[in-house]
Specification:
Length: 247
């Protein structure tokens, strides 16, 4: 019996496929189901999760420092971006004191604004939720120029130790520590393993000599907040014309 129904269904589908009629959605209606009201609570599971939630909240709600100004994310340069790039540069120098440049991909910073005042550990996890680890790269000047052009095309990424001017989607007047870039010189750059491994179309970095470290970028942010709050009463990143548009 089921075989006859299958034949009927198959024939119906065939004719439908040959039909000249076109079907589309003309209207829709959304509805929401309150899960907590329709699914009975498994109290053992709820208690189990609440135990870990309470423990996690106690860690994430911990105040680790202060920002003296609001931190905002924008392009081509921003206070939040400069803070992240500076924190990464400081961490990179602790790993290798020859590191001179730091680049953070703009999309890696996941919230657009942090208000002035106390910063919790959880807020840093909101800024940087990914487990990206630091990687130091030996980058020739001509590849660094290509990297800056790539960032300029994307309207600018957070950078420290270097600067450039965006003009017609390209990077001009590139400088490293205030000096004009030299194509035949090799620089040490610190960035995330995501970018070092070609993320965000940074394929030109993959072939370079790399030194990966088991240091989370997120931890570098936390360390800077803690240290600056102890010695300087909080972080205070400034706009320094590291990346600007040509006039």
């Amino acid at each position: 019996m089921w075989f006859k129904y299958f034949q009927y269904l198959l024939i119906t589908l065939m004719f439908s496929a040959c039909s000249p009629k076109h079907y589309g959605i003309t209207s829709y209606k959304t509805s929401f189901v309150a899960i907590k009201d329709t699914i009975p609570h498994e109290m053992e599971i709820v208690d189990f999760l609440n135990y870990y939630k309470t423990s996690l909240d106690s860690v994430m709600d911990q105040v680790i420092g202060i920002t003296q100004i609001p931190l905002s994310k924008s392009q081509p340069e921003s206070t939040l971006g400069n803070f992240a790039a500076d924190a990464q540069l400081e961490a990179g120098k602790r790993l290798d004191n020859l590191v001179s440049i730091s680049v953070v991909n703009y999309g890696g910073l996941r919230i657009p604004y942090v208000p002035k005042g106390s910063i919790t550990r959880g807020r840093v996890y909101e800024i940087m939720p990914f487990d990206n680890m630091l990687t130091i790269i030996d980058i020739p000047g001509d590849v660094l120029r290509q990297f800056c052009n790539h960032m300029a095309k994307l309207k600018g990424w957070p950078i420290a130790g270097a600067s450039y001017v965006i003009e017609a989607g390209k990077a001009n007047d590139i400088k490293v520590n205030g000096l004009a870039i030299k194509d035949n010189q090799t620089y040490k750059l610190v960035t995330s393993d995501y970018i070092a491994n070609g993320g965000d179309d940074c394929y030109f970095l993959v072939k370079l000599k790399q030194y990966p470290y088991s240091v989370f970028l997120r931890d570098a942010l936390i360390e800077k907040i803690v240290n600056d709050s102890k010695k300087d009463s909080g972080i205070y990143p400034k706009i320094e014309n590291r990346v600007v548009y040509a006039e």
